[in-house]
Specification:
The chain is α+β, with helices and mostly antiparallel strands. It contains six helices and 13 strands. The radius of gyration is 18 Å and the shape is globular.
Amino acid sequence: MEGTFILVYYNSMNYSLIHFKEIDSTNNYLKSSYRLLDNFTFASADYQSHGKGRNNRIWNSESGENLLFSFLIKDENLLKESPIISLITAVEIAKIVEIYKIKCVSIKWPNDVLIGDKKVCGILAEGELPNYLVVGIGLNVNQKEFSKDLRRPATSLKNVIKKEIDINQLKEKLFDQLVSNLKNLNKDDSLEYFRNHNYLLNKRVRVVVNNQPFIGEVIGVDENFCLQIVSSDMLLHIDSGEIEIL
């Protein structure tokens, strides 16, 4: 583990924040330290030397330009909802993005927030159930340039609104919202928002289920946050996996 950190307690919302100038991965830190930390401990960093996304893909970010953080869940009731926590997190982040009067915000199942067709946020949930779950987030805030080699083109809030954003203010607002809404979880509200911001809706996709590929059209999201895909004469309910847009 690299760098130094400061521990700050926000008593009003009952969560703690550990901030690193530099670290290998905030997800790795919380996973290795979860026994010593409280529920809703947040770890953020100016820079991650080994940031990652799903399937061990590299997540690169310029130092101090973006909001990089993870939070720890140890609450038994929330852990029972672990299959949908990353999607509910995506809903909360999409709501924050819309505060900046940004249009065309959507959620690409299962873990990305998009502006138009460009990715602005990625989410990675890892854990050891029933002990803990760690949710890691990379939200592009003030970075202007992104690699051309990314699987999906990326953008940032600054690129869209043409204005620098105070990352600390954004961080406090988002952390407060995440804690408040996860403690008072309203799955129906989150599901309605997701359905209204479903990037994959009506798109033709390829999905692999139990090593068998299916091609079909996304028609919606069921009450369990599973993606509904019509393939031939079947209605598939997809709860995990990779989706390829055709």
